[in-house]
Amino acid sequence: LFIGLCWAMVKFIYRDIPLEDDDAA
């Protein structure tokens, strides 16, 4: 459960501040 929460947080942060755009590359 904790892993899922962390993943959601990471995804949210990345969406707000994308450090590395693998999709773009």
UniProtKB/TrEMBL annotation:
It comes from the Bacteria. Pfam families: DUF997. This is DUF997 family protein. It comes from Escherichia coli.
